[in-house]
Design a protein that fits this description.
- Helix content is about 95%, strand content about 0%.
- The chain is mostly helical.
- Helix 1 crosses helix 2 (about 55-75).
- The longest helix is centred in the middle third of the chain and has 52 residues, at about 1-55.
């Protein structure tokens, strides 16, 4: 019976360690997700500012990107 208790305790300790590691990983992933969301918002804001200041250049870049993507898609 004593051996069974030791095995049970070891299993519970292992489970607790795995659960703790999983909770920590989820917390870190949540923080990184928030950082990515903030970076995306800054990038969108910067792009909108650039487009507002340089509308003709922006249209030219968009047209060139569309042309290149169209060519790449037609090759497949």
């Amino acid at each position: 019976m004593e051996t069974l208790d030791k095995i049970s305790n070891s299993a519970h300790e292992a489970y607790d360690k795995v659960a703790s590691a999983g909770a920590h990983a989820a917390e870190v992933m949540g923080e990184k997700g928030e950082q990515l969301k903030n970076a995306e918002q800054r990038l969108v804001k910067d792009c909108r500012g650039y487009i507002s200041k340089n509308p003709m250049t922006s249209v030219g870049i968009a047209a060139a990107a569309g042309f290149i993507l169209g060519r790449l898609m037609n090759q497949r």
